[in-house]
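To: structure desk
From: M.T.
Subject: fold request, one chain
Message: Could you run this one when you get a chance? Sequence is below, nothing fancy, just the single chain.
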Amino acid sequence: MWTNPETGKPEKKFFLELKYDTFVGEPKEDVIEDFNKKTYLDDAGVVRWVKSDNVPPADWLEDFKDLGLITEDAKEKSLVAKDIDTTRAVTEYIESRKRWKEEDPVGYDEAQREMAFEARAAYGPGEECVNVITGETFTT
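Reply: Done. Structure tokens follow.
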């Protein structure tokens, strides 16, 4: 989904978006079916996937709104909830890595060596790698 920087509104530009006239690049009937079978509105009016309880991505929410399945308010509430959920998940990930390092330094070090080995196989030796969530770095 591309957002026009001049208008701030999403626009369909990519092949499947244009082919199906949806942001997710699927036929409208499939998007409607997915909404009816795979989502629910929680008590706060936020759209969530049944299977994971996560908020769908913005392109799905935009299609749900465009197809008249949710209101603009429900879309906005869902986007705010998605940001909150993402912040919470990233914070929990960072904290769990810190706890793991403190509580099980041997297991943590072993996992770090295995990760470095896999990265070395993928990128070659001497490459600097960064965990983009925690900022931790290591060299292959």
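Reply (cont.): The longest helix spans residues 72-103. Let me know if you need anything else for the meeting.
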